[in-house]
Amino acid sequence: MKFIFLIGVEGSGHHMITAILKEAIESTSFCDYQLFHQILTERWNSTDNSNKIIITNKLKSLFIDYENQGFTHIFESASFPFDQPRDGLRRPDIIELTEILESLKDIIDYRYLVLYRNPISATNSALRREFTDNILLQSKIIEDNLNHIMNQLKCISYNKYKILNFENFLFNPNSYSNKLAHWLGLNENTIINGLNNIRKPTQKEEIPANISEFLHEFFSIKRIKNWEEFFSHNTLI
Asked: Contact 116/9 with Cβ under 8 angstroms?
């Protein structure tokens, strides 16, 4: 089976990728938001203080059960951070998850799809969906989680993740269909069909003036350079 983990700060394209994968997710071979998701989010939310061996054994038992049920894909898409109330530290631990999945590689083939979107647009997306009305808080949450993702990915094997740039993808999504299908282990026609589900996102020039001014001041060219170079390498294409 393949374990696909969609990695990215909130507002970076989780809903877009989920919409593209709609046909696959609705199939009987795709496992999405079942008990494994609860186990992981309880761990990441610090509500399960079991040791890593216990968590590993729980997941191993589940994965074997899923395999026996005929699943080919397990799909996790918790964002960084996830859920309410707002807590920038309620986020996945990529390093620990990788260590767990490495110990289960005889039954699971894991790979990560990392989403990167201009932080101004990602922050505005979260504000528009009313995750919070505190623009500075949301900006800091995006900044902190971009740093968290970048620093944790630096500890992960290069061949276990690929980066998908949100803006580049939307400029020509059809050019990504083959590579995306290959990376996710899906039929290319499934991806091509799913591209029709993409909805046009809010453009940077459509952001209300007062919000745009604040975000451009916070996410200065110098600040964005913290992540831009890292997220421009090991891309899907």
From this structure: no
Does the pLDDT of residue 157 top 90, yes or no? yes
Q: Rounded to an integer, what distance in angstroms lies between the CA atom of residue 8 and that of residue 42? A: 19
Q: And the tokens for 117?
A: 């979107």
Contact 59, 35 (CB under 8 A): no
Pairing of strands 2-7, 161-165: unpaired
Cβ contacts of 60 within 8 Å, gap of 6 or more: 104, 107
Q: pTM for this structure?
A: 0.96
Question: Which residue type does 220 have?
Answer: S
Terminal-residue alpha carbon distance, the chain: 24
pLDDT at 86 exceeding the cut of 90: no
Where is 76: in which H helix or E strand? strand 73-76
Strand, helix or coil at 114? strand
Structure-block tokens of residue 40: 């992981």
Token pair belonging to 210: 């007062």
